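anyone else get weird line breaks when pasting these?? whatever heres mine. first is seq + tokens for prot A
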Amino acid sequence: MERVSSMENQRKIVHLCPDDKFIDNAIRMFEDAFPQENIVCVYTKGRPANYVKNGIDYHVGVKDVLLGINNGVMNHARIVVVHSLSSAWYRTLERLAKNVPIIWLGWGADYYDIISPHCGMLLDQTAELEGRIRAGKNKTIKAYIQLLFDSMYRKVKVIERINYFVPVIPNEYATLKSARKWRAFPAQADWNYSPTGQELADYVKAHGVAEEMGRDILLGNSATSSNNHIEAFDIIDVFNLSRRKLVVPLSYGDAQYGREIKHIGEARFGEGFDALIDYMPIDTYMKKIARCGFVVMNHVRQQAVGNIIIMLYMGLKYF
């Protein structure tokens, strides 16, 4: 249980986190405000983390998802902070003592299925691809198990237990609250991940910001259908890429969707298509981005806010 065993008589802020590039900076901000008062739990399926580098106190595995994180960790909680509400945390939150407040830091994708369940977020060709992928997945045993643990009914009950909710954009609070009837709904709070913080500062300090804009084009932020990659391909294909590359991050999200987009992109753009399938260190990723002068985010809803801020800071033109 790593460092948790040394905290027996202390009440802490317990963070439930995905393995994501924004978490290190978020925990750094909490540590600045509440030094040595944070327990960091990261869902890594018990394996080493890819993105979170600093101070993981507990690697959350599949057993923790099914049964809840063990009391040796959660008994230390005076507050629980959920960084993106995923089904990985449902059982832990269901078991949590009623007197322990929960703060939910929303990421958009974790509540847009309630606000607008794919309605209007996917353009026609992407919706067709997503439908084919879902149809295949729904036939598997894994899909039935996932449905059992990730039902909308269960998600709603968990949200009704939460005390405070921080949306990405403030007006999304009222939108989510009015999206359905709730027995209880968390109060609104204000916070943000400050994505242009230390991580970007470290990169700029080490490498500087390019004086000349790169030639390549960055498309999307993940292997998720809300990026509407196929429709973006149609638009970009009208123009002659010449010596430009189309850089498409696909290492995060739905692996099957990512494989489909990689196949379609390579068929259309050949060597001009650069799919980022595998995890890469932040320095390597940022060097790839530094080659780009343009970024295309083909989302219908807000998404990738942190990435967009970083790209604008680096001087990329955003579409």
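and prot B, same format (seq, then tokens)
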Amino acid sequence: MRSDVWPGLYFTLGVRHDLNGDFKDATTWRSTASWQLPAAIRLHGSFGTGVSDPTFFDRFGFFPGQFIGNENLSPEKAKGWDLGLEKSWLDEKLVFDLTWFSSTLRDEIVSVFDATSFLSSVENQIGKSDRRGVELSLRYQPHDNLEIFGSYTWLDAEEPDQSREVRRARHQASLSGTWRFLSQRGSLTASAQYNGDQDDLDFSVFPAQRVVLDDFVLMTLAARYRLFDGVDAVARLENALDQSFQTVLGFNTPGLGAFAGIRAAF
């Protein structure tokens, strides 16, 4: 549902009700607001709630000698809000946005380790975890065929005991540029993503100890060329710098990858 309350002022409201055979039925909602002001300034914000059910693997997964599921899990429950300011220049060719956000998660599903059976499992965490931070973004289009986008996020994520939440990098940033050529029939894109260091838990010892996973930069190169209407030739390099990194302790991630193909739309 959308409402135009005042010239330049808009509200939206969405409500969702889920009928669930395994858990309690859930009603969630989200509301947004946008206010266009003079001098190409726009205020925006949102508030909402959400529910996430445990996965099948969380409840029933089993790896002999490693992991056992937990049938008694409850859904995670979240609520959050954000408030931001957007400013544009040069007929919206240069757009800057600053957003402050905060969210709370209850009954978070977390990994646990049983020193008696030497099995890992999952359980609902008692209390609530909080996430708050600031996101900056900048989009610049100096030419009809060139677009540059950059962003930075600072995140403060805390466990119920106010310790730093694991697997949540405090600093993240990205930078990308796209050049279109031959009347925008083809395009070249280069992007880089930075993920700051983050904590994780080492379950190979008991009790589990906190460790720090190193920061890393991922670069992606992509190309597209329209052969004819609805058919494109595409190619991309992922992790072009062949970085070795982990986002979960003990689980390596793919190195350099090259892909090419044909994409058709009908």
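btw re prot B: The CA atoms of residues 33 and 207 lie 47 Å apart. The chain has one domain: 36-264.
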